[in-house]
Amino acid sequence: MATSLRRSRRPIDIWPGFVDALATLVMAVVFLLMVFVVAQFSLSEALSGRDAALRSLQQQANSLADMLALERASSASLAADLARLTQAFEATVAENKELTALVETQRRDAAADAETRAAREQEAQRLSQDVATLTALKQQLEAEVDRLTGSGKETAAALAEERTLSERARAEVMLLNQQLAALQRQISALNAALEASEEKAREQGAQITALGQRLNAALAGKVQELARYRSEFFGRLRDILGDQPDIRIVGDRFVFQSEVLFGSGTTTVEAAGRQQLAKVAATLRDIARQIPADLDWALQIEGHTDNVPIRTAAFPSNWELSTARAMAVVRILIEQGLPPERLLAAGFGEYHPLERGDDEAARRRNRRIELKLTQR
């Protein structure tokens, strides 16, 4: 009995249960840490993918901005072409006005000829009436002669009178015949003059039509011929200057960024820029030998600045700076052997930008020198 009581009072061993609980807790914590690591890894992957997508979208946006700038430049070029074609159209309209005035003069001459013809026709009608009157008188006289001849045998006095009247009538008939022949000759001359006037009017109308057709064909041929030489000029420049980011073709113009030729705020062309312009001059000299003498071409040099105003003693505004830079390029091209009468210089300041905006990239694109082969 006493032994049983002592066994029942032996202390209970809880250590194995505690170890099991602790192991279970550790496993739960490890599982949670693994879940957290996996979630963190997935989140990192998602964020990196999103960053890549954002970078791709940014690149696409930059590409679209470049394309927009090119489209704007093309629009400006098309506007310039439209202005040039408008001038050509106005010149053609002026020539057409001159031709119209010439046609109107010819029409007035034709109207005057028509009036002359009408007057001549009236004169011919009057002469015809005179001829008819004279013919009727001739017939009356001949009838009188016949009557007098039939009754003139009655008396000698009557016979003598008859002879007198007969001779007189014959003389009048001869005179009337002469007048009739003269009137017929006048009518023939009037008809010949009328036909000559009509033929002259037809020839003048044909000449005016042919002149207009030749004028239109000549204008179209000159424009196409100049476009062919311009394409060859730009193609050779592209091959010679190579693929440089600061030298490019925009529409029908060859564009040099100002940094290629000038320092900031100056009009002095640097050595590297002189080398580039020497290549341009050599290429244009080769092309100029092939251009026909009757094609009145010119190389237009345009200076452009950004929208940052400049106010110095030498350059009160961007107008003066852009014009001075264009003139500096013209002087170098003349030194390289290009004829001065084939060069045009113009300054546009900041008023014809390639790209709208106030950031440095847009301003850098807008600071440029443009070369354009055009017709004067």
Automatic annotation (TrEMBL):
Q: Which InterPro entries match?
A: Bact_OuterMem_StrucFunc, OmpA-like, OmpA-like_sf
Q: GO cellular-component terms in the record?
A: membrane
Question: What are the OmpA-like domain coordinates in residue numbering?
Answer: 250-376
- A Pfam family (short name) is OmpA
Coiled-coil residue spans: 124-207
UniProt-listed PROSITE patterns: OMPA_2
Chain ranges passing through the membrane: 21-43
Q: Does the keyword Cell cycle apply?
A: no
Question: Keywords, A to Z?
Answer: Coiled coil, Membrane, Transmembrane, Transmembrane helix
Is Membrane found in the keyword set? yes
Q: What is this protein called?
A: OmpA-like domain-containing protein
Q: What is the lineage of its organism?
A: Bacteria, Pseudomonadati, Pseudomonadota, Alphaproteobacteria, Rhodospirillales
